[in-house]
Design the sequence.
């Protein structure tokens, strides 16, 4: 079945936390809808029953550089190319938005996925609080 990526897809406050939980991430319920108000844009995919099955967003200051975040595909739909299509559409929207560079941080086992999406792997670092 063909799934469609929709930029700024209307989502209910619980949908993204539910999806995050399904992939083993913290729900972060308090982030929604604030995250949608503060990011540059987001994209989502619904299945034939209107269930949210994929989500991701780009945030930043809206100038030259954006940051790709939280690329999530429901476990039952992984391996069908939805994630690559989602990232590709977010990168196209980044270009339309005027961003000339998008970065992403990911776990090492996701390197091939992001390479397929056009990212060049480099070195970097992440700082995180313990709260």
Sequence:
């Amino acid at each position: 079945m063909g799934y469609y990526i929709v930029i700024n897809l209307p989502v209910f406050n619980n949908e993204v936390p539910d999806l995050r939980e399904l992939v083993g991430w913290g729900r972060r319920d308090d982030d929604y809808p604030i995250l949608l108000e503060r990011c540059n844009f987001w994209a989502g995919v619904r299945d034939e029953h209107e269930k949210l099955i994929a989500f991701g967003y780009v945030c930043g200051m809206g100038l030259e550089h954006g940051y790709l975040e939280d690329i999530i595909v429901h476990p039952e739909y992984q391996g069908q190319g939805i994630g690559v299509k989602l990232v590709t559409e977010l990168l196209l929207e980044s270009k339309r938005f005027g961003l000339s560079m998008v970065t992403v941080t990911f776990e090492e086992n996701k390197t091939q996925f992001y390479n397929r999406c056009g990212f060049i792997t480099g070195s970097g670092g992440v700082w995180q609080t313990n709260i």
User: Anything to note?
Assistant: Residues 6-116 form a domain with the Aminopeptidase fold (CATH 3.40.630.30).
